[in-house]
Amino acid sequence: MGVVNTEAKIFACTQSTALGENIAKAFGAKLGNVITSTYSDGEFQPSYEESIRGTRIFIIGSTHPEPRNLMEMLLMIDAAKRASARHITAVMPYFGWARQDRKDKPRVPIAAKLVAKMLEAAGATRIITMDLHADQIQGFFEKPVDHLFASTIFLPYLRSLELPNLTVASPDMGGSKRAYAYSKALGSDVVICYKQRAKANTISHMELIGDVTGKNVVLVDDMVDTAGTLTKAADLMMERGALSVRAICTHPILSGKAYEKIEASKLEELITTDSIPLKQNNDKIRVLSCAELFAEVMDKVHHNKSISSKFVM
Predict the structure, then answer these.
(1) pLDDT the model gives residue 1
(2) Is residue 261 among the annotated active site residues?
(3) Any signal peptide, and if so, which residues (predicted)?
């Protein structure tokens, strides 16, 4: 009998090619060869240009809008399954559609659950992701999910700033758990923003719970989309006497006029990761790479080693 091939190979979807190259380099491997053919009507077909039979493969791809990004991940997984890959791990630094994790009103989908089922139906045997919008999304899967925390990237940077009178803030009530975790790690106070929305992405009112007078504030969130909440919170805190306001957001979706809002706001800086590539440069945005974090976890997964240290603040 032949020896079972346990080689690990890394591939990237087109939207995450740059991050995929950095992860592969940190992993100590070359990014695998995939070509994508596109038809005139926009239909596309990814193709592995090397044998993956019997291997463990990691497919790197964030599934931020547009929907093509999710579809490409599904097609890459399906192609790997049909090419007899032994293990297929979907590495999704940003797990898209996660804001739809429950029915918040009648007759709406639970998109996060649907995406989980599609990934499993396509053939994914494991998921590696970072800072899900809601922790319970892990329960939508029947396959193992490794949910990493970007705090392992952000905390060393924050400590290096040596900010006096540091206070951690949550931009909304839903993020209070995350803010408390950061405050515990940093030994700081916590303040919470209470907001009311007129509709999605539109804030009608915001109020501050806690005192920021004379404080250097760090807002903590899992994603920044239109940047409306962050910039409004930063401006409010500066009005209430804060010395400075920074923001930490793992996933830089940055849609609409987000870049302009950040530039015009009183934010000192927005600290984020490269889970989603930036659309444009901005002097206020500092990107900390998550490549080494994912490479380390992928290596441990491949060699069946514990990764529990990456689940801790």
Answers:
(1) 40
(2) no
(3) none
Residue 15: CB atoms within 10 A of its CB come to 22
Asked if residue 222 lies in contact with residue 131, where contact means CB atoms within 8 angstroms, the answer is: yes
How many structural domains does the chain have? 2
Task: Say whether 21 sits in a helix, a strand or coil.
Answer: helix
Would residue 1 count as lying in a domain?
Answer: no
User: Can you give the residue range of the structural domain that contains 101?
Assistant: 8-149+292-311
Q: Tell me, yes or no, whether 276 and 169 share the same domain.
A: yes
244 shares its domain with 136: no
pLDDT per position as a tens digit, 23-40: 999 999 999 999 999 999
Taking 90 as the threshold, does the pLDDT of residue 123 lie above it?
yes
In degrees and rounded to multiples of 5, residue 97 shows phi and psi of 70, 15
The first and second tokens of residue 102, run together, are 């429950």
Which one-letter amino acid corresponds to residue 310?
A: K
* CA-to-CA dists, residue 224 to 80, 137, 201, 254, 297, angstroms: 32, 19, 11, 6, 25
222-279 confidence digits (pLDDT tens): 999 999 989 999 999 999 999 999 999 999 999 999 999 999 999 999 999 999 999 9
How many whole angstroms separate alpha carbon 269 and alpha carbon 260? 13
Residues 259/225, Cβ–Cβ less than 8 Å: no
Question: Which one of 195, 215, 232, 310 is the catalytic residue?
Answer: 195
Residues 143 and 155 in one domain: no
pLDDT in tens, 175-210: 888 999 999 999 999 999 887 765 665 556 788 889
Residue 186's CATH number: 3.40.50.2020
Looking at the fold, whether 195 and 77 belong to one and the same domain comes out as: no
72 and 131 co-located in one domain: yes
